[in-house]
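Inputs:
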Amino acid sequence: MSQPACPMCEMNDVAAHADKYECMTCGHEWPLEAAAEAPDGERVVKDAYGNVLVDGDIVAMIKDLKLGGTSQVLKVGTKSKPIRLVDGDHEISCKMDGLSIALKACYVKKVQG
Ligand SMILES: [Zn+2]
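Outputs:
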């Protein structure tokens, strides 16, 4: 992560504490969240192994998953079509086995992107 600049004096001599930044030049302090890696509204979705997923990635199941409301089971190793990231607790929208499904990122691993 790159060193943040002080929002008050724009100097880069900034100390990172556990919960805040402190400017060594002017003494201004501000909370860490303001400088978090992900900007507002942009969240990071990671697969079961911590790889960052983006639109267009191909993922594969890491375990068998029964589809809610059906008797269909997605077998471990089943690969998706290019995924699309969506809001909600099922972060991945994709086609798998010819079905349009929503998946939780914790059930898949990235195989290609
Ligand atoms: Zn400053």
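Remarks. Residues 6, 8-9, 11, 23, 25-26, 28 surround zinc ion (CB under 6 Å). The mean pLDDT is 88.
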